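Researcher: Next entry in the queue.
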Amino acid sequence: MLYFAYGSNLNHFQMKRRCKDSVFLKKINLSNFKLTFRSKYRAADIELKKNSIVPGALFEISKSDEKKLDVYEDYPILYKKYYFTYYGKKVMTYTMVKKTPFTFPTERYLNIVKKGYKNCKLNNKFLKQGLQT
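Model: Structure for this entry, 133 residues:
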């Protein structure tokens, strides 16, 4: 199955440790969404925003990888699954259930996300925008 990462799972080391079967395919943009950080965990989330994009990574993951991600993302309590189509293929990602106000991420978490942006060669400007809401 295809999975879209936009937060700490962009970090290749973390993603491989979490999902042993995962394969990074390429970077892609999710249209009409923006990146933000929220909840008591101060974690990444996406929300609808017209004419905005969230850069991220497309991974191929196995069924057992998906189960591990479900546990990590605290599905369906903290995050729910969101599906979109990319060139005719179904892609899964997670989005927070409760859209609480913006909270600045911890330095540790932000560093994991920054490393992920480097791993996937994503444009940092979108991360900076996500930190300004």
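Model: The chain has a mean pLDDT of 97.
Researcher: Noted, moving on.
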